Amino acid sequence: MPQDYLKRILTAKVYDVAQETPLDLAPCLSERLGNRLLLKREDMQSVFSFKLRGAYNKMAQLSPEVLSRGAIAASAGNHAQGVALGAKRLGTTAIIVMPMTTPQVKVDAVKALGATVILHGDTYDDAYTYARQLEAEKGLTFVHPFDDPDVIAGQGTIGMEILRQCQKPIHAIFVAIGGGGLISGIAAYVKRLRPEIKIIGVEPMDADAMTQSLAAGHRVRLPQVGLFADGVAVREVGEETFRLCQEYVDETILVSTDDICAAIKDVFEDTRSILEPAGALAIAAAKIYVEREQIQDRTLVAVACGANMNFNRLRFVAERAEMGERREAIFAVTIPEERGSFRRFCECIGTRNLTEFNYRIAGEREAHFFVGVQVRDREDAAEIAATVAAQGFKIIDLTDNELAKLHLRHMVGGRSPLAEHELLYRFEFPERPGALTKFLNCMSPNWNISLFHYRNHGADYGRIVVGMQVPPDEMSELQAFLETLGYQYWDESQNPVYKLFLG
């Protein structure tokens, strides 16, 4: 009952280990959205996640006798740190079963808190089953990551803090959903005191167990879940959390991987903090909601619920963030294999920045290349496609094509029997508008480009590799071109890697 949860939340024992986190304005994102977006900074907890609230509250309620036997939990990472910290603070032991796919940063953090880590299975559910088996064998106390009233109440203290920290009207609170403990606790408290506030749950498109369950009217078990947002990769939501969500959650929003990456970038630009994928779900959904509802000047709250990010994953996040913001479009373009065609294509792009260009000569009549372009929005991308098509070129929009974004963009190339008299050069040039166009305009029209690779990596300088078919009697003109261009360059024509894979 709501009264029961209200009392549980008000008396929850969380502040021995948790801090009351700030409710910070995201100034840049707020201005862009035309609404006041507040971030509940649970990423600032000592374990960089909200999970210690519920875990500690559960363990603190146990009798000394039960607590002395030790605790066990299954977790993809953040709950594990909460249990490990709770065990350390309460003077007991903890065993944590984690999926084999858990980011190493989370495994190391749990070990550093003194818990024993066992890696088992590919998903949370595999780890959960094994943890339950060990619980029975060793007589330990299982600390559920979400489907427990004390855990739910611990997470609900976030809702209590939000209402205390923001006295002004709140239009909606956005909360990530894994098993449902976080949103259940927040919703049970907020709806009891401020029922007019919308509670909106957020799930990845490939891990939407709560969304499917609410639509079906009963808990749905997913056959598999995506692992990018590993903190919410749960196949089946809790029984109690499902009941509470049915009663209190107004709606759920599904977000894509690109949406999540864009949200991570948004939060970084406002706070200089880097959220993990699950931690950025709420921000991604707030953006989608504002665009869908066309609201203005409202106060929105997004729970930034975790920051246990693997550093290596940042490469992928940076690659996909621009697409999540709809600020990069990628295309496959086919043009006639004749001099001047590439220049005509560049004229179609106009003053927009090229973000990527991959090409390898492959046929005598047609040239196929993969190109990325910085755009204002999806309408701008459609305008580019129409302009290119009007020139008689074939163009396919690949912006939503996962195969192209994940793999094919890195596989354009190979050997070509048509690359006669090819020389390979690597260049660095200042990363500013017009630099690439300057390079193309300085080249002799007699030299055919047989290979081209460029990708904007966010540095102050751009890097390209160019294959040029230069007749042997024009080497002096080539040298003059290289010297007057003003860009740093390297002759890679004798590079063994080039000879092995491209030459």
Structural commentary:
It is built from 20 helices and 18 strands. With 503 residues, the chain is an alpha/beta fold. It folds into three domains: 2-49 and 149-320, Rossmann fold (3-Layer(aba) Sandwich), CATH 3.40.50.1100; 51-142, Rossmann fold (3-Layer(aba) Sandwich), CATH 3.40.50.1100; 326-501, Biosynthetic Threonine Deaminase, domain 3, CATH 3.40.1020. An eight-stranded antiparallel beta sheet has the order 14-11-13-12-16-17-15-18. A hairpin with a 5-residue loop joins strand 12 (354-360) and strand 13 (366-374). The longest helix is centred in the first third of the chain and has 17 residues, at 149-165. The radius of gyration is 27 Å and the shape is elongated. The N and C termini lie far apart (72 Å).
